[in-house]
Amino acid sequence: MFTGDEISAELCDLGVTHLVWLPDSALGAWEAALASCPSFDLVRICREGEAWAVAAGLFLGGARPLVLIQCTGLFDSGDSLRNAVHDFGLPLFAIIGYRNYLNPAAVDSAKTYTEPTLAAWQIPWRLIDSRDKLHLLRSHYSACCQAGEPGAVLIAEGRM
Amino acid sequence: MTQRMPLADSLHVLKSLREDADVVVATMGAAREWMKLGMHRLDFIYAPSAMGEAPLVGLGIALAQPWRRVFVCNGDGCLLMNLGCLVSITAAAPVNYTLLLFDNAVYEVTGGQATAADARVRRGGAVDYCNIARGCGFETVHDFSQLEVWQTHARRVLCERGPRFIRLAVEPVPGGEVPRSPGPPPARARDFAAALALPQPPTSPHSG
After folding, report:
1. Which helix (H) or strand (E) holds A155?
2. Residue among B50, B58, B188 whose CB faces A57 most closely
3. What is the ipTM of this complex?
4. What's the CATH number where A65 sits?
């Protein structure tokens, strides 16, 4: 839906200092642009639970991290998210790839559980399911930062 | 029989070498015993925890503040929860980062059950964490099972190039409980972040 350059430009404008990521097949296409962006460092992790913990440490250290993972990784990383966001109260923000959202023929259950999972973890989110909604990343990120609250945007994946 | 040192004594060595600008992240049994040695404003007691994630919290701090030394006191059960963290750490490769593995071969706070890495419950002997760390890309790896040797060499190894991996074979603490948060976690996080934000004189991450 978006190019890596488009996302890099947004994150640069938002003042993100570190992007903690584990790619999926859609987000992975952004790698070259994300890795070469001089405005932030790309931190590569091995499993999505690590992302929240690294972002927690970065935030405590005064950086402005952002987590970039797929929704399946969100499912896997719940305990780490819970600890960082709800035990320690850290207002972390994530971009989450919404697997198969745009693919009506998909048979896996990722679509079914993504939004209920965010609701269960009390993470306010916005859905970006078309190119003209990219502005929601900026507006939601800014609102969450201002309020000192966690947040996420879901970026729909699949055929358009 | 594997030689092991008392956990509290092994931590006291780190305490004696800790500089004022250093960060110490501690979890599980190491956190419980570390608190007994006296708290510092740049201690981050990772309790309550997401087990396995303490090394990553420390990694984030080390990346955000590369001028500080960051020491992470982790347990072997915790490391087994997330061996991939070793790869994430060496991918980022912060020179100011040290992971200390306090290896007692058991899940101490749940009553002392053997981990799957313990020689007593597996063929072929105990898992070799130092070889794993080397395989994951740590260039500085040390293994200590005698307190006197750790005391003698600690200052030197903590000055070697990071990221560093140091395994300390320690005795389980009988009846060792889950560490209690020394205050409301959100308030502690705010205080810790505020302490990290205070201006500090620049120090070399290699300095001892």
Report:
1. strand A151-156
2. B58
3. 0.97
4. 3.40.50.970
